[in-house]
Amino acid sequence: MNLLFKAAVIFFLLPAFGLSQNKTSTTDSVSLKHSPHKATIYSTVLPGLGQAYNKRYWKIPIIYVGFGVSGYFAVDNQKQYKKYKEAYAVRLDGDENTIDQFADSYTDEDLRLLKNFYRRNRDLSYVSIGLIYVLNIVDATVDAHLFQFNVDDNLSLQWSPAPVSNTGAMGVCMALKF
What we know:
Blueprint: H1 2-16, H2 26-33, H3 36-45, H4 49-53, H5 59-92, H6 108-145, E1 156-163, E2 170-177
Antiparallel strand pairs: 1-2
Helix pairs in contact: 3-6, 5-6
């Protein structure tokens, strides 16, 4: 198992760092070297690796901060949910010997609402972790597709007022220059 893992890491990471020897020509190597499929696979295996492959290193901390914040709220909401769930169970058990820590603070309905509130927030935190993971993959894929996109100074969009034909009214003319 360990050998298989090492082989998979080498297989996926060598092309990402330009250590592969498969260079046929300059145009083919650029298109082969920067594959949207590879970026997708890399981000699926390890979040942020697709962004590193696309040379968008500044996005990696954003991804991991998102995971960290969502994970923190998932853990915190789980603790609160467990606390109010146990308090609600103690309240409803009917045993007079159990100590109810919220006897003076909350009613039965309040405890039930608090338990449901924290359970819902915990579940939403797990959903946000999943969304961050999916958005990480989508971002790496789209960025890899647009990696070869031309954004030099010769591209321009100019707006100017222009007369509308035979009406005497003015309109807006848009010209896109390549």
